[in-house]
UniProtKB/TrEMBL annotation:
Keywords: Signal. It comes from Trypanosoma theileri. The keyword Signal applies. The lineage of its organism: Eukaryota, Discoba, Euglenozoa, Kinetoplastea, Metakinetoplastina. Residues 364-466 are annotated as: Disordered. This is Uncharacterized protein. Residues 1-27 form the signal peptide. Residues 364-454 have a biased composition (Basic and acidic residues).
Length: 486
């Protein structure tokens, strides 16, 4: 018994190491995917289903006629490239069902594995107590003893059995069974293990299908890439290639996650199996112990006595009856003898798991539709924001132009005003000049007239105030000149 537990611990340690290595490998794989995501600018899902669905929603919705009508792909000489792009687009679209199946199967499998982990956690303390009982049984009784007649006896009191130890054990057994009643593994634990094993079969088949899709996608991506220098000249070819690369990365993450659950399953189910087996063995030994009431201990050298212990043995049998029967029946159903019975139970599990996966894929389709609506709302919001920004820029540009126009008009009005003022000043200046000329002309005419009169009078011998008139003319000219300058 002790040797078995030592080996079991070794197995557990090895599984823990494998788990750590798997997580490390997956982490490195996801880093590589993240790098590809950065290079291709394509949304890739790890655990983010929303991002994964957005990757699928970004798949171009080109028709074959759209590709034939493309400026570059539609040319007669590019028919092979056009067909390659179309085949890649078809493969991308058909991959969605495998993404659903892979993700749903992985999620359902993980649920079953986590149910096994919960069973192990819940029963951990109880299992330690039942292990203590089996150890104590080993101290007072021998297992699988062959008597003198060659008959195999499952349990027999040791020759060295000590009375106190035996009586303490009989008192401890009902106490432990009562304390562990609610935490001990039940038939459900047995069925959870079977469910995990059957779900593993389904999910590995699903993963194999995803692997086939991945190989096909990679071939299609490589096919487009062979037309180097040509496919880059078509926006449609570039979009299809990038979509295929994004879906390829998403599906690779799905397979990585399935592998992760595989390691988790091996660890959890192995531990759950060991735990169930421990309880089955404990129940069997306790049942054998409870039947020692009729054993003959006269030949044993120990001090153990079974006489008078029937009430205690009866209590043990009563406490064992229901849990032992339930677990034995569950094990019999799971490990059914006969190919037909095994197939029947496997079909039951398969149907249950398949139905769960179907329900999950239906839910995923609704989630996809919700994400599509959310994406459409975001895009509409972005479109409206861009439209509002454009309208605001146009208004700002219009206001700027109006400000510039008003400034130009003000400047033109100011220039016109200044021109009018200048013109008025020049007209006023000309009027003054004209007035001065006319005044001067008038003075000259008057002076000439006076000079003529003076000459006439002089001829007649009469005197004239010529100097007075001359001085008066000079004064008038000076005043007029000042007026003109001002």
């Amino acid at each position: 018994m002790t040797t078995m537990f030592v080996r079991l611990r070794h197995v557990m340690c090895l599984l823990v190491v494998l788990q750590c290595l798997s997580v490390l490998v997956l982490a490195q794989g996801e880093t590589g995917v993240a790098t590809e995501d950065a290079n291709n600018n394509i949304g890739v899902a790890v655990l983010n289903k929303k991002k994964a669905w957005e990757t699928y929603l970004d798949i171009p919705n080109f028709t074959k006629e759209d590709l034939e009508g493309d400026d570059f792909l539609g040319k007669p000489g590019n028919k092979e490239l056009r067909n390659t792009v179309w085949n890649a687009l078809v493969a991308v679209r058909e991959s969605e069902v495998h993404f659903k199946n892979g993700t749903a199967c992985m999620t359902e499998w993980k649920k079953v594995v986590e149910a096994n982990e919960k069973t192990v956690r819940d029963a951990e303390d109880a299992t330690k107590k039942i292990e203590g009982l089996t150890k104590s049984i080993g101290e007072v009784a021998d297992r699988d003893v062959v008597d003198e007649s060659g008959r195999k006896i499952p349990l027999r009191l040791k020759n060295t059995c000590e009375k106190k130890k035996f009586e303490d054990l009989l008192q401890e057994i009902p106490k432990v069974l009562g304390e562990t009643k609610e935490k001990a593994p039940t038939a459900e634990a047995v069925f959870n293990i079977a469910d995990a094993n059957q779900t593993e079969v389904l999910c590995k088949a699903t993963r194999s299908n995803v692997d086939d899709v991945l190989r096909n996608l990679e071939q299609k991506i490589g096919g487009i890439a062979t037309f180097v220098g040509d496919y880059e000249r078509s926006d449609k070819a570039m979009l299809v290639k990038r979509a295929a690369e994004g879906i390829n990365a998403t599906l690779r993450n799905v397979t990585a996650l399935i592998d992760n659950v595989t390691v988790q399953d091996r660890f959890a189910v192995s531990k759950a199996n060991a735990q169930v087996e421990e309880w089955r063995m404990a129940y069997a030994e306790l049942a054998f112990l409870a039947e020692l009431g009729n054993a003959d201990t006269s030949e044993t050298k120990g001090t153990c006595e079974v006489k008078g212990k029937e009430p205690q043995f009866g209590e043990i049998r009563k406490l064992l009856q229901t849990p032992k029967k339930e677990m034995d029946d569950a094990v019999k159903k799971v490990e059914a003898v006969g190919e037909d019975k095994k197939k029947k139970y496997a079909a039951e599990v398969n149907k249950r798991v398949t139905e769960a996966i179907k329900n999950m894929t239906t839910g995923m389709e609704r989630e996809k539709e919700r994400i599509a609506r959310e994406k459409a709302r975001r895009e509409e919001g972005a479109r409206r924001a861009a439209e509002e920004a454009r309208r605001k820029r146009e208004e700002e540009e219009r206001a700027r132009k109006e400000t510039v126009q008003r400034a130009k008009e003000n400047e033109a009005r100011e220039a016109e005003k200044m021109a009018r003022e200048k013109e008025a000043r020049e007209a006023e200046k000309k009027a003054r000049e004209k007035e001065v000329r006319e005044a001067a002309e008038k003075i000259r005419e008057e002076e000439a007239k006076r000079a003529a009169e003076k000459a006439k009078k002089k001829k007649d011998g009469s005197s004239s105030p010529a100097l007075v008139h001359s001085s008066l003319i000079l004064l008038v000219l000076s005043v007029l000149g000042c007026t003109l300058v001002c």
